[in-house]
């Protein structure tokens, strides 16, 4: 997939949702300056509109919330980058927005501003193919990532030794269309 394909398929919906205020992403989509510039370089008009959004009070609040959960954010980033597709062009920005999106309260695809869950699955398949294959029981993506952190010794969501005997099974495996 070319960088242009990645932008059209994944990043345009995210950027448009950011402009519309329908993501949990902090200023600059949660990206450092250089990757933000690289991502938006070919979408100059859109970048001007994006840039007007960064100072919005809600996005500043999102930044504060992200900072408060910095350790969790870093663990999610590390997990994602450990499984990065070396052939993908925008894999580090993808890890950053997904890690930020995990800090929201809605389904991950919604909090990123993607149009539907399958688009998020395609993001995982392209940017993090090992994780995509590992989610062979079609868990909700956010819960899947936190489960990986639990298995690495984190203490985020799992209160049972296995999913089959867990009292919150439906929160991890239920449908997430809405
Ligand atoms: S079903 Fe329970 S054990 Fe399995 S990932 Fe979810 S919280 Fe963890």
UniProtKB/TrEMBL annotation:
Species of provenance: Shewanella dokdonensis
UniProt xrefs under Pfam families: NifQ
Domain of life where this protein originates: Bacteria
Protein name: Nitrogen fixation protein NifQ
